[in-house]
């Protein structure tokens, strides 16, 4: 191990040197970690990972793949081959689905030995992980067997678990991303979720200039946390454009490979963005796609060429999955709009607005009822766009829903994500609209691009959601702000939910770029998509 | 081959064998059309085939002819038509067409074999109008020495139910004809309801003779199982949201579509039963729940 000398030079006790130290420390604050610090952190990570491996079976989530790939750097001189061996069997067990039978290499034997040692160590410590113990004691012996997949809860739904919080804090500290603290009293049903305040953005603690986090990512995070960019498609497109900028400014450090280093560079950015606002399903899919594209770059590809290729990939993703998809969806949806229709829409969905504008251009005679709700009042934006086109609109608040539904012939809803069990995750209030529409026998059509389909399964709106700033609920009328001092009342909690899930029995039809499918066929589409990839 | 010759051939098929499904007759005619076709290019051939299907739809406006024709076209063109010689390509297409025809001629038998086990000894069955597939199912069940009684609705305006009752009497199955309005009255007596289908739509619902939807609603209210028997060539790429959403070209017979000006005065011949009211669908692809129909359709069409 190469140990660098102390970056501040030899230590002496004089004031001057202490001052110099402080200045140097201040200078180093924003800088990236030195080589030695990086090695130290890497060793910590490896230890951390070893302990984690005994806690649970083979990690199968993206995050774990990241962590596994991070300790596999391309610094051959300083790293012993043991480091490389550790991630290699992890990768093998992760890709166990491929179910190939690799010959037992020396690295795998070493890994088996280490796994055995680890399991003995943890049994000595008496860690209670239940069945996973037996799973971990013989995992590496057959790395090609399909191991029981243990899903780990994502961090953002474990806010009331101190262990998970500590892990998150450590991870963010390692990545040099500021940790955003929760704000205000949380309603007990939702105490497992984060609740942030818009008045304390995560960028307060970032030093200037922030060299660990790219400035356009900082800007994007701020735009997310302040609500300047809102809406599933808008957030994904902004994210992809920012990544294009990041790739443009990226330069491969010496002795590193672009395919591996760039992915590692993206992890702190993604952590930062999820601190600003939890990632949406569409953003998650986009990130998965980018990471796959980056890691598929061949190593002999020149940097400029690789960067150009990646930017072209991102452009084609935006074009195919978002822009062309909305054209295809409009084509199908227009078939379902007949003359004399009264269409109900909720909130502001870019896709539904696009469909209605296209249908109006095609000379369909219909009128629209826009339903809106506090505190976001997004319906006003939709109203603005539709009226500008010349479409006849009516505007009501969601409390008047059962009053106007007898007039309505169809309901068009947008979606934030479509879950694998057919549930529709969308803006809070959507399931209410679907429920009342069902009671009045009005057909409910959900419009959703296929890139928003996600493998998650959820049956209620509690387990995974987003809590918005509770201060948004404070309303000022006639100069008086009720609820202004809600924090002083100990038993009062303000709940500002962002999403809810609608069961598939309330949805009659889902219009995607692949065609019109019933809500129960979402897993079929996911299966077909996975086969394509 | 001229289009009116095609139509004549089709009509002759139906007259010659009244037991054959109209879609099968249509596909036989299309195959003959393909054999006699004189076009020079594959694109021209496809154009002619699509036109032929459209002409057949005009003759017999049932959903099955439309879906059968489209599936036939997809099936024959799904192979690689890379041969430089057009006649070779045509031979490949004709071969595949005959294969398709053979497959679907057997489908009714397959459905019958699947479904008759669901009829228990002593069962009372309610069915609607005249369906050849349901007849086949009941035939198989009777051949299996099961004892059951059948109630058939009269099914106005063409009294097709009475024809069904006659055919069942020939098979020595005890049958009773009831009025369409008596479905609610008779529902508490029956054990299960079996109907055929003219078309199975993407949502898993079915399009069938008018009166089926009523029967489905009644059986749901009485918690009786509602079974639909249909061959797989009846799967069609429609997605109606409600009764109004079914296209006009299926709702009325071909002659009415051609002659009558104001369709609002005419009475539709079919209605749409949503998937929530259907318990199971028996097809030659297997026993499916309504949600699985979409899966099968994606496999068939994509």
Automatic annotation (TrEMBL), chain A:
<dbReference type="Pfam" id="PF01008">
    <property type="entry name" value="IF-2B"/>
</dbReference>
<keyword id="KW-0648">Protein biosynthesis</keyword>
<comment type="subunit">
    <text>Component of the translation initiation factor 2B (eIF2B) complex which is a heterodecamer of two sets of five different subunits: alpha, beta, gamma, delta and epsilon. Subunits alpha, beta and delta comprise a regulatory subcomplex and subunits epsilon and gamma comprise a catalytic subcomplex. Within the complex, the hexameric regulatory complex resides at the center, with the two heterodimeric catalytic subcomplexes bound on opposite sides.</text>
</comment>
<protein>
    <recommendedName>
        <fullName>Translation initiation factor eIF2B subunit delta</fullName>
    </recommendedName>
</protein>
<dbReference type="GO" id="GO:0005085">
    <property type="term" value="F:guanyl-nucleotide exchange factor activity"/>
</dbReference>
<feature type="region of interest" description="Disordered">
    <location>
        <begin position="26"/>
        <end position="144"/>
    </location>
</feature>
<keyword id="KW-0396">Initiation factor</keyword>
<dbReference type="GO" id="GO:0005829">
    <property type="term" value="C:cytosol"/>
</dbReference>
<dbReference type="GO" id="GO:0007417">
    <property type="term" value="P:central nervous system development"/>
</dbReference>
<feature type="compositionally biased region" description="Basic and acidic residues">
    <location>
        <begin position="52"/>
        <end position="68"/>
    </location>
</feature>
<dbReference type="InterPro" id="IPR037171">
    <property type="entry name" value="NagB/RpiA_transferase-like"/>
</dbReference>
<dbReference type="GO" id="GO:0003743">
    <property type="term" value="F:translation initiation factor activity"/>
</dbReference>
<comment type="function">
    <text>Acts as a component of the translation initiation factor 2B (eIF2B) complex, which catalyzes the exchange of GDP for GTP on eukaryotic initiation factor 2 (eIF2) gamma subunit. Its guanine nucleotide exchange factor activity is repressed when bound to eIF2 complex phosphorylated on the alpha subunit, thereby limiting the amount of methionyl-initiator methionine tRNA available to the ribosome and consequently global translation is repressed.</text>
</comment>
<dbReference type="GO" id="GO:0048513">
    <property type="term" value="P:animal organ development"/>
</dbReference>
<dbReference type="InterPro" id="IPR000649">
    <property type="entry name" value="IF-2B-related"/>
</dbReference>
<dbReference type="InterPro" id="IPR042529">
    <property type="entry name" value="IF_2B-like_C"/>
</dbReference>
<keyword id="KW-0963">Cytoplasm</keyword>
<feature type="compositionally biased region" description="Basic and acidic residues">
    <location>
        <begin position="28"/>
        <end position="39"/>
    </location>
</feature>
<comment type="similarity">
    <text>Belongs to the eIF-2B alpha/beta/delta subunits family.</text>
</comment>
<dbReference type="GO" id="GO:0005851">
    <property type="term" value="C:eukaryotic translation initiation factor 2B complex"/>
</dbReference>
<feature type="compositionally biased region" description="Basic and acidic residues">
    <location>
        <begin position="101"/>
        <end position="123"/>
    </location>
</feature>
<feature type="compositionally biased region" description="Low complexity">
    <location>
        <begin position="81"/>
        <end position="100"/>
    </location>
</feature>
TrEMBL record, chain B:
<comment type="similarity">
    <text>Belongs to the eIF-2B alpha/beta/delta subunits family.</text>
</comment>
<keyword id="KW-0963">Cytoplasm</keyword>
<dbReference type="InterPro" id="IPR042529">
    <property type="entry name" value="IF_2B-like_C"/>
</dbReference>
<dbReference type="GO" id="GO:0005829">
    <property type="term" value="C:cytosol"/>
</dbReference>
<dbReference type="InterPro" id="IPR051501">
    <property type="entry name" value="eIF2B_alpha/beta/delta"/>
</dbReference>
<dbReference type="InterPro" id="IPR037171">
    <property type="entry name" value="NagB/RpiA_transferase-like"/>
</dbReference>
<keyword id="KW-0648">Protein biosynthesis</keyword>
<dbReference type="GO" id="GO:0005085">
    <property type="term" value="F:guanyl-nucleotide exchange factor activity"/>
</dbReference>
<dbReference type="InterPro" id="IPR000649">
    <property type="entry name" value="IF-2B-related"/>
</dbReference>
<comment type="subunit">
    <text>Component of the translation initiation factor 2B (eIF2B) complex which is a heterodecamer of two sets of five different subunits: alpha, beta, gamma, delta and epsilon. Subunits alpha, beta and delta comprise a regulatory subcomplex and subunits epsilon and gamma comprise a catalytic subcomplex. Within the complex, the hexameric regulatory complex resides at the center, with the two heterodimeric catalytic subcomplexes bound on opposite sides.</text>
</comment>
<keyword id="KW-0396">Initiation factor</keyword>
<protein>
    <recommendedName>
        <fullName>Translation initiation factor eIF2B subunit alpha</fullName>
    </recommendedName>
</protein>
<dbReference type="InterPro" id="IPR042528">
    <property type="entry name" value="elF-2B_alpha_N"/>
</dbReference>
<comment type="function">
    <text>Acts as a component of the translation initiation factor 2B (eIF2B) complex, which catalyzes the exchange of GDP for GTP on eukaryotic initiation factor 2 (eIF2) gamma subunit. Its guanine nucleotide exchange factor activity is repressed when bound to eIF2 complex phosphorylated on the alpha subunit, thereby limiting the amount of methionyl-initiator methionine tRNA available to the ribosome and consequently global translation is repressed.</text>
</comment>
<dbReference type="GO" id="GO:0005851">
    <property type="term" value="C:eukaryotic translation initiation factor 2B complex"/>
</dbReference>
<dbReference type="GO" id="GO:0003743">
    <property type="term" value="F:translation initiation factor activity"/>
</dbReference>
<dbReference type="Pfam" id="PF01008">
    <property type="entry name" value="IF-2B"/>
</dbReference>
